[in-house]
Each structure stands twice: as structure tokens, then as C-alpha cells.
Amino acid sequence: MNFNELIDRRHTHSEKWDSMERFYGVSPDTGLAMWVADMDFRPPSAVTAALQAEVAHGVHGYFGDESDHKAAVCGWMQARHGWAVAPECVSTVHGLVAGTALSVQAFTEPGDGIILFTPVYHAFARVIKANQRVVVESPLLLRDGRYVMDLEGLAAQLTGREKMVILCSPHNPGGRVWSVAELQAVAAFCLAHDLLLVSDEIHHDLVFAPHQHTVMPLAAPAIRERLVMLTAASKTFNIAGGLTGNVIIENAALRKRFTAAVMAAGSSPNRFGVLMATAAYQQGAGWLDELLVYLEGNRQVFDAGIATIAGLEPMRLEATYLGWVNFAATGLSPLDVIGRVQRDARIAASHGASFGTGGESYLRFTLATPRSRVEEAVRRLPAVFP
Ligand SMILES: Cc1ncc(COP(=O)(O)O)c(C=O)c1O
User: Fold this and answer.
1) What are phi and psi of 222, to 5 degrees?
2) Residue 254's closest CA among 132, 108, 78?
3) Does any ligand 1 atom lie closer than 6 A to the CB of residue 103?
4) What's the pLDDT tens digit per position in 123-176?
5) What is the Rg, in whole angstroms, of the alpha carbon atoms belonging to the chain?
6) How far is the CA of 322 from the centre of ligand 1 (A)?
7) How far apart are the C-alpha atoms of 208 and 210, rounded to whole Å?
8) 167 CB under 6 A from ligand 1?
9) How many CB atoms lie within 10 A of CB 206?
10) pLDDT tens digit string along 216-241?
């Protein structure tokens, strides 16, 4: 796999490249798209082959019989994460934002509180608010340059209206791989306060050695009866356009409620997404191993480049390809920072404030792009932060 190949994604309905001018005022012709969390790489060849076979057959009707797909999901969980889960626990949804929304609808009521450890992936708060639930922010603390959860502070904040915790594991942004002890502490918190735990593990295959991700049911078996696991092939293999994700629930009663919410939404699997995910899980492991080596190189180039700029502090990523940089020490306002990065350096990066409390002085840079673009980004930035 040649991850160095520059693939022109302009005019392909790529959100990252074809919407950057509209959202950031950065032209895709001269700018660098580093906002949306997808990769500028082709997926494993097995994914392309699966789509080619579909096109060659030429009839694209409703998808039926998910047994291959569910077996592939469970096979991946067992092989890569050591978790033996039964296929009947898996529901296929239209991506994990949809999976989050359906979980909110299935397990909470309007007005209920849903806890987020902020800054965190922005769609969580968007979905919670759009469903008339209340976002309860538990700001992460910075310890030795890494995020840690403040469960004591959170306990003091509780009002009794909270029903759910949504944990991002590994964490986006900031790239924390939560330790087993940290996962156990969140799980114990949920049990102690009668909260349902939604563990969004969409980034759990994108982990840098020596860090090791532990899936929540293995870290804290006691939580399995009140756990909703969100996983997907979409980030791992760069097939997010297929909008296919897995909601895995071992508790049969909870699963029944979730299935009812899927039914209420009138949702059924997307043929193209399921075909891609199945092929990726079945045959993509080698590609992923190569990708992780490449991303590690990108992370090093980025961190080294950022470190040369006074006032910029990259968080040390343990997982994800999302560089999270603090600009606070420049003394500039977030608006000034954004202006310099977008207008002067012509880089579209995600604004930290959109991730909630604690994100205001940060920008998030997607590093899953050919190395020459990461090098170009760290060439441009020093000029605008002299
Ligand atoms: C934590 C997290 N969950 C979910 C998603 C998006 O999921 P999907 O594309 O499957 O809706 C993202 C995308 O960046 C993410 O970072």
C-alpha cells in the first residue's frame, strides 16, 4: 500500500475537500484539508474488490441476510480485541452518530441528563440537544499533558436527572487510550449512580504502540448488563461514506429496546456500507498494520514540526490520527489563531470550541494524509506564528 500517493479528492463529493471553502474559507486548490476525520487513502483492496463485484453484478436491491457481516464483526472483535461476542448482540446502524442518536432515543427521555467528558467529539452534544436531552459536561483535567477524568467532580455535579454516560474510548480529541483502571472507574461510577454506559470505540483500532486499548466489556465485566458498545469499520479502514456501524448490546432486554428504536426510525442496512465493512473486517488486517506504521510516522513529523513553534503544544497522541494542538501559550485569542491558520496558512482544521468546554484554545488537525501534506502543514504554520 502506497500511503504516500497524493489522490486528488476535489470534485468527488468529499466533505473534507469539497466543503472546506464553504466552512473555512480555505480553497481546496491551495489549502490543506485537515478537519473531517477521514483519511486521504484508499481502503484495503478487498473493499474495492467487493464494490467492483457488486458493480459487475449490477443489481443493487435491498440488502438481506446480515449473517456474513455480523460474523465478520464478531471475528474482528475476537481477533483484534480478544472479546468473544455473539452475532445476535450486533445491530447494524447507519453510522455511529445514528447509533448514538438511537441509543439516546431508546434509553432516555426528553429532559434527561447525558454526561460527556469534554472536550469530546462534537456530534455527541449535537445529537443530545437535538433530541431535547440535556448535555452534562464533565471537563477533563490535564495531568502531565494528558487528559484524565474527574469523577469526583462529576459526582458532586449530579442532580439525579442523569441517565447515561457517553464515553469516547479511545478519546477524540486528545488521543487518550484510557487505562483499564480508568475504564473500571467509569464503569463503577455508572453502576453506583444507576447510569447506562455508551462506549463509543470507533477509534479502537487506531492505537499506537506501546499503548493498548481494552474494550469496555473486558476491562469492566460488571458493566456488561448496562453497556452499549459502538464500533465500526469506518474509521479503521476509511470507509465512512458507507455509513455503517455496529451497536453491540449483550443485555437482551436493552437490545430489545434498541431494536424498537431502530424500527421506529424505519432503518435498515445500507448494502454498500455492509459489503465494504464485511470485506474490510475479513481481509483488512494487514493493511491496518501497515497504516498504523505510516500514521506513527505522520504523528512524529507533526509533533516535531509543531514543537519548533513557540507557544504551540501538541498533545501526545496514544491513539487516533487527530492532532490536538493547544495555542493558549501564544497569548492570541482563538479568533486570531483561527484567522492565521485558515487565512494565512490556508489550513482547514477543526475549531476546538466545537468540542465543548476545555477545547477553546485548541485546533484539531487530521493527520491521516500523505506525509508530504503533513510536512507542508508544519512548513506553513511557523510563518504565521513567528
Ligand atoms: C468518536 C466518534 N464517534 C463517531 C464518529 C462518526 O461516526 P459515523 O461516521 O459512523 O457516524 C466519529 C467521527 O469522527 C467519532 O470520532
Assistant:
1) -65, -20
2) 108
3) no
4) 999 999 999 999 999 999 999 999 999 999 999 999 999 999 999 999 999 999
5) 20
6) 12
7) 6
8) no
9) 23
10) 999 999 999 999 999 999 999 999 99
